[in-house]
């Protein structure tokens, strides 16, 4: 008997309706799906598809009420390089959203410490927006953000808005300053002792390069953060996004399904093991 | 699960069983000889099954002998049929229309598969769950499982260690055991299996035959053992993540992923795009394996660029993570990865060595 087989790995076409240049190699895309997709939660990701080219998992960096999904993309591989050649009105495919995002429920009435490194701020941006929107639901908001140099900082055009969020702070740093830079110089972990949050009643959300996250965990533990107060967003090869293709495993976890956001204590056993 | 008593018959009943399944309009897939290798393929007649052909399987070694002996696991596992190596999942046209492929799903009987492969199908069922690969789930709907118990396991077999053989206990429709060519014991494992066996002229097995069956299986179990035990194995392996054995093996391993491909439970896949001249594009799911270089590679980075780390991942996945993910080991002891490893790496030895390292450390 001939039967049609419909794969759950089917993308929905989405139109590029806006593109914001962020850094020399990073842009923020506004995608408007042609059919309704589930509303992403902060920390989730989608698979961006270009026919004939392929797919790449990219975190969601903004969620609009009209179904528009905002994603910040660095041009670094085949798919993203091709995406950068597209413009407004062009169609791409989207699947998702997938994965477990940031523990928004757990953040209620807690101080929120956001630690971002480089493009790692992208999946944290929806958390900032959520705290801003429902300001009274959360305690103090402290955003620590670092990049290799000033030109690589994302969302600079929004920094003033972040600073205006009541009961919050934005601490920035760069590894190497240029002539325009008057702020902190050094790695983002150096900002952690300066953050004005109460470690006994705070949750830290961390995303950045793996090496940055390792040092961040150490610095947070030094401040008294426990393993269940630290959440990390991991990057792996999330090929299918639904826990079937196997590529994104870290220990017994499928990063796409059990993560990408993990409480540190859950992955502690594997986090420090080289190439696990 | 149901699994009935033993009935006895001869070789002619086995042939009649084949015919009866055929008469019930099943497509029959089973072992057949192809280019000097026992493979799994569609059978037109009972005579195609290479009874009387034996295989010699050793680490990195496979030969066929026509000596009246027995063959063991075919090169292909049921995965080949249920979860094809390459499958188009959709085609997207230039104007973004999605076209899904249609496939033929026939009532299919897997005839003469080994208990280890039956266990592998059950593992694949758990891996795919209810929301897994659509093709696999469809294939599973109408599958008749006829299992041949092993009385002469091969050199690379270790089903007894993994608890998957040499005899199947449940989960089949029909199991049969060739005690010799004149006595074959049949066992129904489902209502359908019982109904099919009811067409044959079988007699309840005599006490002597049941005794011979038990002895044969016990003897086979003695042969199909690895040098390690499953007790505490996941914990032992996790205690030794930095084992030097992984680095030693990587000196010999070619990273070819043959072991992944022949493994009856390895499920990892990649998805590739094939652009066509009319501007459309085909999206194809293909098998992938954790030993291959690109497996854990991402744009701008690589999470397991060293071969020892990829080898370690395969061991840890099968013998540690799998339990936490799917509630069983990911290995059924079929020995294919040992036979078809071009470097002749013996998984059993590798695990034994890692366990030994830990035991030595504990003694100190």
User: What ranges of chain B have pLDDT less than 50 throughout 5 or more consecutive residues?
Assistant: none
Strand order of the largest sheet of chain A: 5-4-8-2-3-7-6
Order of helices and strands of chain A: EEEEEEEHEHEHEHEEEHEEEHEH
Q: State the helix count of chain A.
A: 7
Largest sheet, strands/sense/barrel of chain A: 7 strands, antiparallel
What best-fitting shape of chain A do the alpha-carbon axes yield?
globular
Structural class of chain B: alpha+beta
Helical segment tally of chain B? 13
What is the total tally of β strands of chain B? 17
Q: Strand-residue fraction of chain A?
A: 25-35%
The whole-angstrom Rg of chain A is 19 Å
Biggest β-sheet strands, sense, barrel of chain B: 8 strands, mixed
Pair with the most extensive interface?
A-B, 45 and 56 residues
Please give the share of residues in helix of chain A: 10-25%
Give the proportion of residues in helices of chain B: 25-40%
Low-confidence stretches of chain A: none
Give the strand line-up of the largest sheet of chain B: 3-2-9-10-11-12-1-13
Chain oligomer state = heterodimer
Radius of gyration of chain B: 22 Å
Percent in strands of chain B = 15-25%
Shape of chain B: globular
Topology, please?
The complex is a heterodimer of chains A (276) and B (364).
Chain A: E1 2-4, E2 12-23, E3 26-33, E4 45-50, E5 54-59, E6 62-63, E7 69-74, H1 78-83, E8 91-98, H2 104-107, E9 111-117, H3 125-133, E10 141-147, H4 159-164, E11 168-174, E12 184-185, E13 202-207, H5 210-222, E14 230-233, E15 249-250, E16 253-254, H6 255-258, E17 261-263, H7 264-271
Parallel strand pairs in A: 9-10, 9-13, 10-11, 11-12, 13-14
Antiparallel strand pairs in A: 2-3, 2-8, 3-7, 4-5, 4-8, 6-7, 14-17, 15-16
Chain B: E1 7-9, H1 11-23, E2 27-34, E3 37-42, E4 52-58, E5 61-69, H2 79-82, E6 86-92, E7 98-99, E8 102-104, E9 108-113, H3 115-128, H4 134-141, E10 143-148, H5 159-162, E11 174-178, E12 184-188, H6 191-197, E13 203-204, H7 207-223, H8 233-239, H9 244-252, H10 258-262, E14 269-275, E15 281-287, E16 297-298, E17 301-302, H11 307-326, H12 336-339, H13 347-363
Parallel strand pairs in B: 2-9, 9-10, 10-11
Antiparallel strand pairs in B: 1-12, 1-13, 2-3, 4-5, 6-7, 6-15, 11-12, 14-15, 16-17
Helix pairs in contact in B: 8-11, 8-13, 9-11
């Amino acid at each position: 008997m001939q039967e049609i087989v419909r794969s759950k790995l089917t993308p929905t076409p989405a139109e590029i309706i806006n593109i914001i240049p962020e850094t020399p190699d990073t842009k923020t895309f506004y995608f408007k799906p042609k059919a309704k997709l589930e509303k992403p939660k902060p920390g989730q990701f989608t698979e961006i598809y270009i026919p004939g080219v392929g797919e790449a998992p990219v975190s969601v960096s903004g969620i609009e009420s009209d179904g528009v999904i905002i994603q910040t993309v660095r041009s670094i591989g085949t798919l993203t390089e091709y995406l950068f050649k597209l413009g407004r009105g062009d169609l791409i495919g989207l699947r998702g959203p997938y994965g477990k995002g940031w523990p928004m429920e757990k953040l209620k009435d807690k101080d929120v410490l956001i630690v971002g490194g480089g493009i790692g701020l992208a999946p944290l941006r929806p958390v900032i927006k959520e705290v801003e929107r429902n300001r009274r639901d959360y305690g103090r908001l402290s955003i620590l953000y670092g990049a290799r140099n000033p030109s690589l900082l994302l969302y600079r055009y929004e920094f003033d808005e972040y600073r205006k969020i009541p009961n919050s702070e934005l601490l920035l740093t760069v590894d190497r300053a240029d002539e325009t830079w008057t702020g902190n110089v050094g790695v983002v972990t150096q900002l952690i002792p300066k953050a004005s949050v109460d470690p006994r009643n705070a949750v830290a959300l961390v995303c950045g390069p793996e090496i940055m996250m390792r040092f961040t965990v150490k610095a947070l533990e030094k401040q008294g953060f426990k393993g269940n107060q630290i959440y990390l967003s991991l990057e792996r090869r999330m090929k299918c996004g639904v826990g079937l293709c196997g590529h994104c495993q870290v220990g017994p976890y499928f990063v796409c399904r059990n993560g990408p956001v993990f409480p540190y204590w859950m992955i502690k056993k594997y986090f420090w093991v080289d190439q696990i | 699960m149901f699994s009935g008593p033993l009935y006895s018959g001869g070789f002619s009943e086995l042939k009649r069983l084949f015919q009866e399944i055929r008469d019930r309009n099943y497509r029959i897939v089973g072992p057949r000889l192809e280019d000097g290798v026992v493979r799994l393929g569609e059978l037109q007649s009972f005579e195609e099954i290479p009874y009387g052909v034996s295989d010699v399987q050793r680490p990195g070694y496979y030969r066929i002998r026509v000596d009246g002996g027995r063959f063991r696991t075919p090169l292909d596992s049921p995965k080949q049929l249920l979860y094809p190596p390459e499958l188009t999942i959709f085609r997207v046209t230039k104007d973004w229309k999605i076209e899904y492929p249609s496939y033929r799903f026939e009532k299919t009987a897997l005839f003469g598969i080994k208990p280890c492969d039956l266990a592998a199908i059950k593992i694949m069922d758990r891996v795919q769950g209810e929301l897994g690969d659509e093709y696999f789930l469809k294939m599973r709907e109408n599958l008749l499982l006829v299992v041949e118990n092993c009385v002469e396991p091969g050199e690379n077999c270790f089903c007894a260690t993994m608890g998957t053989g040499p005899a199947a206990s449940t989960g089949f429709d029909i199991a049969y055991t060739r005690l010799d060519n004149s006595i074959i014991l049949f066992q129904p494992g489902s209502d359908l299996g019982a109904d099919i066996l009811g067409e044959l002229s079988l007699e309840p097995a005599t006490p002597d035959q049941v005794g011979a069956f038990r002895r044969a299986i016990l003897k086979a179990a003695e042969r199909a053992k690895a040098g390690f035990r499953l007790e505490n194995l996941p914990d032992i392996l996790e205690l030794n993540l930095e084992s030097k054995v992984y680095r030693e093996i990587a000196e010999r391993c070619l990273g070819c992923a043959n072991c992944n491909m022949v493994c009856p439970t390895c499920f990892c896949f990649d998805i590739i795009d094939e652009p066509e001249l009319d501007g459309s594009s085909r999206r194809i799911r293909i098998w992938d394996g954790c030993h291959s270089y690109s497996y854990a590679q991402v744009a701008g980075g690589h999470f397991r660029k060293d071969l020892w780390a990829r080898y370690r991942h395969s061991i840890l996945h099968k013998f540690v993570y799998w339990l936490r993910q799917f509630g069983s080991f990911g290995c059924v002891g079929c020995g294919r990865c040992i036979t078809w490893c071009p470097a002749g790496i013996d998984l059993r030895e590798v695990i034994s060595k890692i366990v030994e390292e830990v035991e030595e450390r504990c003694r100190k």
